[in-house]
Each structure stands twice: as structure tokens, then as C-alpha cells.
Write a sequence for this structure.
């Protein structure tokens, strides 16, 4: 949504959602220890979704400094949310690029398993909060978070002005509880959208790895079509096979990329529709299509790997054949040498016998 349309509808300006994938995985218990040691408040809204995700809040204008204990002194627009997922991905809402980069590549790096900071992947979406709707959605690259309070709360706000004493105190308490619940629901919606975005960013890493694999093996089909021999060493072939197995394992075994619904949504309230938000992000970013294309490319890469393995097996078999031939040749050589020595000894013996007989006759 453009800033002009946001202004016409009376909505706040759009902000940025940023996702960073910096490692194959995050060790979330280690992440929790790191953040706790640095003073971050973990799970500020008590969503209890750990260990599926770690949630912290960071002041927008203070770099990566933890939120102070007096968080009520900050307005909502002055606080950004950060969600860390086990897939090695971090998703930040409303935080500057520099702050997100510092958190992903410096603060959380000790908890990263197989980090790839030099080849990290990032994705960006925009989001805005709409106080006129309760449900959230994504259209194009813009997320709209519905933040409207339930009708009962709005009525309580109007009635609280006319109430007094204990009645007003009770109304205010109910309002605060409903407002807190609305904030929790908004955070849960952010987690759902973040999970879908993290999935897409992780997929981009695998797409990049597979692209690099094809780039390093792109000459193989040309060589085969020309009937040329493949001049690859054993270490090269084993390395390429290992790279392909690693990518396939990350896609199908070590992440939730191919899961229809991550575990963190199973315990959420159905009326929140969090699984719908997750699916919306997947459709908006073509995750399903990209996974299908990636698997098809994997099949082609597997064919290349099979050719390399056949070449390795052929080369190994050729070496064994020549080794056997060499051993047979050595054995034949020794046998010829033995026969030559035996013949020479026999001739020498015969010569000596003849000489002895000649001397006997002469005497």
C-alpha cells in the first residue's frame, strides 16, 4: 500500500519487516542464554512458544540495546519486535537495517550452527497497522495487521467516562485485560507472518546453494555431449556429492520447509487464524512453487552427481585394471627371469660336463 493510500485511510505509515538467514540452524537454548546475559526480556507477552521461537523487543532508536525494565515509558511505535527461529533465521519488525544486521551477524552469531554470514540471505516486506479491522492479511509485499479492539472494549471505553468509583475501576481493569489480550493476539499474528517469511528466506539460501552447485558443474553436460572425458579428481567428485546431500537434507530433513504447518501453530487458538496467515505468506512469496521447482532441480542435480559417481567408479576400476595388469607383468617378468636363470645354470652345467669329458679323453 502506498503512503498516499495509507494517509487517505487514516492509517500509520508503512514500516519494514526484515528477515535474515545467517546459519544452517540456531541453537535456541544458547540464544536464550546469550540474550538473557545481555539484558533482553524474553517472551515479553508470555506467548509460551519457546522452543519454536524466541521473542524479544528492542527500542527502535537505540541500536541493539535491550529494552529497559521501564518499558511502559515507550510508545508502541518506538518498540520493534524480533523473532528468532531454529532454522537460523531472524525476523524483525519496525527496526532499522543496521540494528537487525548487528543482532543477526554479531549478537546471535555464537549460537549459530554452520553460519554463512558472508552469504547471508535477506528478505523485506512492508507492514502497517489498521485500527479499523480485527483480522490481518497480506497483499503483494504489504502486511496489514488488524488492531481494532473488540466492540465490547470500545463500549467500555465510552462507558468508563460516565462510571465512577468501584464501577469505573472494574471497567478500567477489564479494558486493560482486553487491551493486553489484543496486544498478545497482534504479536501472535506477527509470529505467524514471521514464520512464513523465515521459511521463504531459508528457501532462498537453499536456492542460492543449488545455483552455486550448478555453476560449478555446468560444463559437465557440454563435455558429455562432445564425448570428452571428465577431468575431475576424486576429491572434487566427493565434494560435489556432499554439497548436494547437504542441500537435500536441509530441504527435507533439518527444517520445516516442507511441512504444511509448523509445530508452533498446533497449540494456538483456532479463532486467531494463525495458520491462515502462515499460508498467506507462503502463497504471496510462491513458497510452494519454489519448493517444487527446487526439488525438480535437485533431481537434475542428482543425475549430474550420478554421472560423477559413475566417472569416479570407472576411473577407480580403470586404476584397478592397470594395477592388476602391472602386477601380472611383474609376475611374468620374475617368471621369465627365473626360467632364464635356470636355463643359464643348466647350460653352464652342461658346458662344465663337456669340458671334463674332453680333459679325460686327452689324458
Amino acid at each position: 500500500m502506498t503512503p498516499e493510500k495509507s494517509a487517505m485511510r487514516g492509517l500509520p505509515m508503512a514500516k519494514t519487516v526484515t528477515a535474515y538467514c545467517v546459519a544452517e540452524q540456531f541453537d535456541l537454548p544458547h540464544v536464550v542464554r546469550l540474550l538473557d546475559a545481555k539484558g533482553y526480556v524474553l517472551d515479553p507477552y508470555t506467548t509460551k512458544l519457546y522452543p519454536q521461537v524466541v521473542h524479544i523487543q528492542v527500542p527502535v532508536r537505540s541500536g541493539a540495546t535491550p529494552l529497559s525494565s521501564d518499558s511502559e515509558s515507550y510508545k508502541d511505535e518506538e518498540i520493534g519486535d524480533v523473532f528468532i527461529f531454529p532454522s537460523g533465521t531472524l525476523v524483525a519488525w519496525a527496526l532499522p537495517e543496521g540494528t537487525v544486521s548487528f543482532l543477526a551477524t554479531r549478537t546471535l552469531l555464537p549460537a549459530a550452527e554452520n553460519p554463512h554470514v558472508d552469504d547471508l540471505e535477506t528478505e523485506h516486506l512492508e507492514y502497517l497497522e489498521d485500527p479499523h479491522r480485527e483480522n490481518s492479511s497480506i497483499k503483494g509485499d504489504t502486511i496489514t495487521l488488524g488492531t481494532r479492539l473488540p466492540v465490547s472494549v470500545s463500549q467500555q471505553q465510552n462507558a468508563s467516562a460516565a462510571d465512577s468509583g468501584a464501577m469505573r475501576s472494574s471497567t478500567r481493569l477489564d479494558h486493560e485485560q482486553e487491551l493486553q489480550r489484543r496486544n498478545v493476539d497482534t504479536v501472535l499474528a506477527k509470529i505467524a507472518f514471521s514464520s512464513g517469511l523465515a521459511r521463504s528466506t531459508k528457501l532462498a539460501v537453499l536456492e542460492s546453494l543449488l545455483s552455486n552447485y550448478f555453476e560449478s558443474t555446468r560444463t559437465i553436460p557440454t563435455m558429455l555431449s562432445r564425448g570428452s572425458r571428465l577431468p575431475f579428481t576424486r576429491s572434487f567428485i566427493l565434494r560435489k556429492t556432499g554439497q548436494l546431500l547437504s542441500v537435500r537434507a536441509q530441504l527435507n530433513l533439518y527444517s520445516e520447509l516442507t511441512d504444511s504447518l509448523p509445530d508452533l501453530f498446533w497449540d494456538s487458538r483456532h479463532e486467531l487464524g494463525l495458520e491462515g496467515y502462515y499460508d498467506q505468506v507462503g502463497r504471496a512469496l510462491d513458497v510452494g512453487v519454489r519448493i517444487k521447482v527446487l526439488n525438480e532441480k535437485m533431481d537434475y542435480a542428482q543425475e549430474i552427481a550420478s554421472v560423477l559417481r559413475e566417472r569416479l567408479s570407472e576411473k577407480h576400476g580403470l586404476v584397478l585394471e592397470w594395477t592388476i595388469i602391472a602386477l601380472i607383468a611383474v609376475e611374468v617378468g620374475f617368471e621369465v627371469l627365473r626360467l632364464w636363470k635356470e636355463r643359464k645354470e643348466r647350460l653352464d652345467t652342461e658346458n662344465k660336463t663337456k669340458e671334463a669329458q674332453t680333459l679325460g679323453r686327452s689324458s
The longest strand covers residues 121-130. The first helix runs from residue 3 to 8. The two ends are 131 Å apart (CA to CA).
